[in-house]
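Quick one: structure for this chain?
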Amino acid sequence: MWMRSRRAISRAAFTLLVAWAGNVTVYAQTVNPNVVEFLPPADHSQVSRYDLAFYTLTAGDPFLTVNIGKPTPQLDGLIRVDLTRTLTSWPEPNVISAARVISVASGASNASLHSNSFVFQCDFSLSSTGQSFSASGGSSTVSLTTQSYCSWKATSSSSWITVSTAGGTGSATVGYSVAPHTSTTNRTGTVTVAGLTYTVTQAAAATSPSPVAPNAPPTVTITRPSAGSTINGRQVKIDASASDSDGSIASVAFYVDDKLVGTSSKAPYSIQWSPDTNGTYTFKALATDNLGATAWSPPVTATVR
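Got it. Here's what it folds into:
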């Protein structure tokens, strides 16, 4: 039985140290190892291969054994194996384990002592913390980075967000889609990937403008002189009554025989007019409301003496 041993020398982080029987040093527990190193036995030349066996600390039998071939010792005499290239399946995360190297020769085999204990832990990170969408919705992805042995799930907290990648092992791209939004308020939902929160916000649907009622024209009536009346004197007072059902009156213009003779912008609407000669005249008024709509009054004919 080979009796070679190795003193505890701190090589690098993420290293499993394996010793053969002899003076054994207890090494510190390692988190997420990616290298195993060991001193081969004296008759390394007679070894046909080495197996790497993984154990939980309370179990007698390995739960995983991997043929690592027969690597060549490095200049310092140690054999080092890159676990990331060797293992196609990994020990379960968060379980304290140890490893042994088993030398296999013709008709015989021998196992090293247990390595320092180790535990695989999962580190998860997302490429972004969230994304915003317009009311029309759409689809997108977020990248998850983790160790190759780490499994994860992806779920949506909202019915309007559909996750197309429900879970997996190792790093991955998680796809999701966002349904169109018809409400007039913004909304927010989340996707949980490997326990990490990814926030999705969506803008409100555009609101249709409320229909605007057409502007009703004003109404206006000549109240003085009255139709068919006779007016004596050189000063003629012309009065009008005007109103607007959906606004206000901006002005009332007075016309005699289709000629503008005065304007009033404040009720009561009235002007004084001096005719050049006696005769029969036609009086009209044009009202304008606050939005620019106009309306004529019915004509009134009166005689001036």
